[in-house]
Amino acid sequence: MSREPILIDLPSELRGPRVLVRPYRPGDGAALQEAVSLSREHLKPWMPWADAHTTVDESEALVRRFDARWRLREDLGVGIWDIETGRYLGGSGLHRIDWDVRRFEIGYWIRADAAGKGYVTEAAGLLCQLAFGPLEANRVLIRCATENRRSAAIPIRLGFLYEGTHRNEGRRTDGLLFDMEVYGMTADRWRQLATAEGMAPGESQSGQAPAASNSPDSP
Ligand SMILES: CC(C)(COP(=O)(O)OP(=O)(O)OC[C@H]1O[C@@H](n2cnc3c(N)ncnc32)[C@H](O)[C@@H]1OP(=O)(O)O)[C@@H](O)C(=O)NCCC(=O)NCCS
User: Fold this and answer.
1) 78 — phi, psi (to 5°)?
2) Whole-model pTM?
3) Cβ(118) to ligand 1 under 6 A?
4) For a substitution probing ligand 1, which of 151, 180, 204 has the most ligand atoms within 8 Å of its CB?
5) Contact assessment for residue 32 and residue 87, using Cβ atoms and an 8 Å cutoff
6) Is the per-residue pLDDT at 88 higher than 60?
7) H-run or E-run covering 22
8) Interatomic CA distance for residues 126 and 120, integer angstroms
9) Atom of ligand 1 nearest to the CA of 144
10) Over the chain, what is the mean pLDDT?
């Protein structure tokens, strides 16, 4: 792929049935600060920045850096918003990008009072549509700590395949080392799953591909 990443036109937002995913803009800092400040205990085990965002200025500076990095196509961080109410729900994005391989890694978190409603699975499905659509991804991966089953449930629901576990790959905020599970999706598989659902890639109404039996416990 010869085209420079900065020349790739990206949509200004992605819409699912319930969530809107879009890059951060100047002015989003207050919403980010509020969501993190109300979710610290929920985020703490897994998010090293859970104690940050103590002021709106700190969060505003971060969203402006996200905005700059999005424009440069260095990192594609996004916010997740409730379509109906406009409330900020959490953060996600396509990170650790390898433009040569066209590989992207999805990360996510959701505010504590919006967890358990399927918003993150919907947002991650929208990011897959972006990756395997306009970004022409060959591979998208999701990594999560072995103990973080709520996180692992997301790639499994989306039909990613479990690829293995990297031992002692990360350190929890309480200092303990953890093993990291890796889930991968290829462009071919994404299209196959979309076809099996009777849709062209990127036309999923739910933002989700059909789930497959692919957890570490699967044969
Ligand atoms: C990991 C994390 C993002 C998962 O969030 P989540 O809200 O559980 O994920 P989803 O949005 O996909 O919601 C799935 C849940 O919503 C339920 N749900 C309700 N309505 C739904 C709908 N319409 N569609 C899909 N799922 C729905 C699902 O049944 C599931 O609940 P269950 O786990 O009790 O079965 C969240 O726990 C979090 O922010 N943790 C802290 C940060 C973190 O660990 N990040 C990941 C680091 S790798």
Assistant:
1) -135, 160
2) 0.92
3) yes
4) 151
5) no
6) yes
7) strand 19-23
8) 10
9) 48
10) 91
205 pLDDT band, cuts 50/70/90, is very low
The closest of 80, 76, 66 to 16, measured between CA atoms, is 80
Tell me, using a 6 A CB cutoff, whether residue 152 lines ligand 1: no
Tokens matching residue 88: 């900020």
Q: Is the pLDDT of residue 166 over 50?
A: yes
Q: How far, in Å, is the centroid of ligand 1 from the Cα of 7?
A: 34
Type of residue numbered 75? D
Q: Is 146 in the pocket of ligand 1 (CB under 6 A)?
A: no
Q: Are strands 139-145 and 161-171 parallel, antiparallel or unpaired?
A: unpaired
Measured in Å, residue 147 CA sits from the centre of ligand 1 at 14
Q: Please tell me if the CB atom of residue 208 comes closer than 6 angstroms to any atom of ligand 1.
A: no
Helix ranges restricted to H, the chain = 29-37, 40-43, 56-72, 119-132, 149-158, 187-196
- Alpha carbon nearest to ligand 1 atom 34, residue: 116
Phi-psi region of 198 (alpha: psi -120 to 50; beta: other; left: phi over 0): left
Please state, as a whole number, how many other Cβ atoms lie within 10 Å of the Cβ of residue 109: 22
- The answer to whether the beta carbons of residues 161 and 216 sit under 8 Å apart is no
| Amino acid 21: pLDDT | 98
Domains of the chain: 12-196 (3.40.630.30)
| Binding site membership of 158 for ligand 1 (Cβ less than 6 Å) | no
SS3 of residue 129 by DSSP? helix
Which residues, 6 or more positions from 197, have their beta carbon under 8 angstroms from its beta carbon?
204, 209, 210
Residue 144 Cβ contacting ligand 1 at under 6 Å: yes
